[in-house]
Amino acid sequence: MNQTELLEEVLNLSREAGKAIMVIYAKDFAIDYKQDESPVTEADIAAHQIISARLTELTPHIPVLSEENADISWAERQTWSQYWLVDPIDGTKEFIKKNGEFTVNIALVRNGVPVLGVVHAPALNVSYLAAEAIGAFKEIGEARIELKVTEVPNEGVIKVVGSRSHPSPDLAAFLTQFAEVDMVPKGSSLKLCLVAEGEADIYPRLGPTSEWDTAAGHAVAAIAGASVTNIDGSPLRYNQKDSYLNPYFVVSRIK
Ligand SMILES: Nc1ncnc2c1ncn2[C@@H]1O[C@H](COP(=O)(O)O)[C@@H](OP(=O)(O)O)[C@H]1O
Ligand SMILES: [Mg+2]
């Protein structure tokens, strides 16, 4: 299977998971809390099961790491040159609030770099998809457009996108480098995608996230031409250490 076919298959399966999520979204669902006190619902689990099963069918030789099945030792993960990195629902708090700002994230990571990614927002009927050597795209209903980032100078009002549900005490200090900012709150990986499509100029994440929260949106933003870096300007990478936590990072199209 070539990369184009693989990308379409992953898009289709993200939509299948999205359909299962929307059935539960429409009901009164139960909410459980994990050890780290983050919420989880039957929709996270249903989507996880669909995605894991379908990815394993599609590429039996590539391991799958999902937020809902992340108990895999670093000794084992260290041996992976490529793997699927999945967040069945990114933005579970937004799912619970029923504001639509949650996504299904599926990324293919090779040697620490997300080389293919799909971010699907089932309640908004919007998908973002990208693969190296193919490009980055946004699909709304039947219409697909290519995303190519144009850089903007650091002047005038800078459009900043930030978390809706996880405030960051360090963000205000970071933003003092800009003369004026327009702050837009948004849940989930939609933030990385907004930079990819030029609706936002920068997404500084100066707070905790896990690798599955960012890899798919990272692929979309980076392949569209945005920079995705650690605070020191080095590339944000995956599967480099025991912990799943990302360092602080910045997604930007500012020159
Ligand atoms: N203290 C923390 N540690 C790890 N991840 C955190 C965190 N606080 C927030 N996140 C992650 O940030 C994601 C949501 O980001 P945002 O607020 O930008 O929408 C959540 O993903 P999930 O919804 O998949 O659990 C959540 O796990
Ligand atoms: Mg999740």
Instruction: Give, in order, the helices and strands.
Output: HEEHEHEHEEEEEEHEHEHEE
Helix content: 25-40%
Low-pLDDT regions: none
Superfamily (CATH H level) name of the largest domain:
Fructose-1,6-Bisphosphatase, subunit A, domain 1
Order of the strands making up the biggest sheet: 3-4-5-6-7-8-9
Bound molecules: adenosine-3'-5'-diphosphate, magnesium ion
Label the CATH architecture of the largest domain. 2-Layer Sandwich
| Named CATH topology of the largest domain | Fructose-1,6-Bisphosphatase, Chain A, domain 1
Question: What's the end-to-end separation, in Å?
Answer: 37 Å
- Chain oligomer state: single chain
Strand content range: 25-35%
Structural class: alpha+beta
What is the number of strand segments?
14
**Major sheet, described briefly?**
7 strands, mixed
The backbone outline, from C-alpha atoms, is globular
**How many DSSP H or I helices?**
7
Description of the molecule:
Keywords: Cell inner membrane, Cell membrane, Hydrolase, Magnesium, Membrane, Metal-binding. This is 3'(2'),5'-bisphosphate nucleotidase CysQ. It is found in: Cell inner membrane. With 255 residues, the protein is of the alpha+beta class. It folds into 2 domains: 144 residues, Fructose-1,6-Bisphosphatase, Chain A, domain 1; 96 residues, 3-Layer(aba) Sandwich (D-Maltodextrin-Binding Protein, domain 2). 30% of the residues lie in helices and 30% in strands. The protein has 7 helices and 14 strands. The strands form 4 sheets. It has a 7-stranded mixed beta sheet with strand order 3-4-5-6-7-8-9, with helices on both faces. The protein has a 3-stranded antiparallel beta sheet with strand order 12-14-13. A hairpin with a 3-residue loop joins strand 7 and strand 8. Helix 6 runs parallel beside helix 7. It is globular, with a radius of gyration of 17 Å. The mean pLDDT is 97. The structure holds adenosine-3'-5'-diphosphate and magnesium ion (MG).
